[in-house]
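Researcher: Next entry in the queue.
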Amino acid sequence: MDSQVLVALGLSMLGGLSTSLGALFVVISQTPNLKMLGILQGFAAGLMLSISFFDLAHNAINSIGFLKGNLWFFAGVIFFALVSNFIPEPSITPISGAKGKKFSACEQKDGDDRNKDIMKKHRRQVLFSGIITAVGISLHNFPEGMAVFLGSMKGLRVGLNLALAIALHNIPEGVAVALPVYFATQSKWQAFKLATLSGLAEPLGVIIVGYLFPSSLNPEILEGLLGAVGGVMAFLTLHEMLPLAFDYAGQKRAVKAVFFGMAFMSASLYFLERSLPADMSF
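Model: Structure for this entry, 282 residues:
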């Protein structure tokens, strides 16, 4: 396997396995701290916006021209808009059981049996929703694996930054899968396993795309594809990450987290460029 594919595979594993970290929130605490998840989403949104506009789109415009760079960027926006239309990003909602239902005096005789039937049916419905969520997230993570691969083709810095931002974004996705599965099965292992499997679609995307794209891709096409990746990341941020951050952490905290994420990314770019060897590709 080509060394470039191996690097991209390793970086995508970071993002894919971060869904396992989200599952751990559920397994350990059972009730996830949505405020903290919102702050993480805001921080990841700042990373994403910084990468999208100040790095990928900026470099594409400088390399292939303003018109072509913008066409590639908005092609990425349209592509991921279509993906999100068919595979909507699941939201994390508190799961309520049938325990809160009240029965009249006449229903008290068979109340226990009826309550068990209601809970059994409710658990099946919730388990089904958890499985559908896992499938949706798997399909959703596939283009993210493509983005990491294309970023790694440009250089280690781009691939590493994309992998870090996507990894933070995937933590709430792990929660979204593990929470309903744990409620339905009462099995921590099943919840953790399904969330982890849903994240493995990301490195799978790297493997498939790694064999579809030639290693010596035309530099102009590569810059255009990276501009499209910038469009994908920008749409993902504004359409999915920021609304979740506002809902869970509140607008003020989320906005602060966004700018902190952008500052963190700028600082990381500076120190990464100074610390890596001069002959290493960026």
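Model: Residues 96-103, 275-282 have pLDDT under 50 and may be disordered.
Researcher: Noted, moving on.
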